[in-house]
Amino acid sequence: AQTVTQSQPEMSVQEAETVTLSCTYDTSENNYYLFWYKQPPSRQMILVIRQEAYKQQNATENRFSVNFQKAAKSFSLKISDSQLGDTAMYFCAFMKPNDMRFGAGTRLTVKP
Amino acid sequence: NAGVTQTPKFRVLKTGQSMTLLCAQDMNHEYMYWYRQDPGMGLRLIHYSVGEGTTAKGEVPDGYNVSRLKKQNFLLGLESAAPSQTSVYFCASSYGRGQRTEAFFGQGTRLTVV
Lengths: 112, 114
What we know:
Oligomer: heterodimer
Shape of chain B: globular
Order of helices and strands of chain A: EEEEEEEEEEEE
Radius of gyration of chain A: 13 Å
Number of strands of chain B: 11
């Protein structure tokens, strides 16, 4: 079974600065998807960014970008120009079509 | 669009009682999932379904049963609730493959077993 590890339970960053959240995973699969989800206090799960494993190019979505290292099974999230609204739990997730697993999460606090 | 809808949003059960959580999606997704979220443990997969009439066990299936009689609905049952099942439960659905692959989540159900 796939496992996802987020080694940073909590992180903080000053507003407007950059922060990187780490994620590693373990799988024997070759085709899969990786995601970062954000969960604010409202409890809603919000997709931040998606990466297909067959794509070498790192995904970017505005201020959010990933560093995908397939051989190392690493998938970190970089948030640039951090905003107060970025304060939330962030979950890294691994998906093959019939199975989706999550890491334990990183609680990010953006300080004014 | 409604997306993924969970019913109910909150529930308090007594130990030994039974209940069913309903998940409904209107996106014609093949794949549906039930997770539980506990502090410090992220989301753990309980059961999942890859299509109407099919179900499979996830990481933590004990004490739960599921059914997918209709493609749009995925039911999670607790036959005899235990305090260890106090948690927030999330349902999700996805296409599973292709460029639109991502999981869409319901609002969550907070269940307390006393």
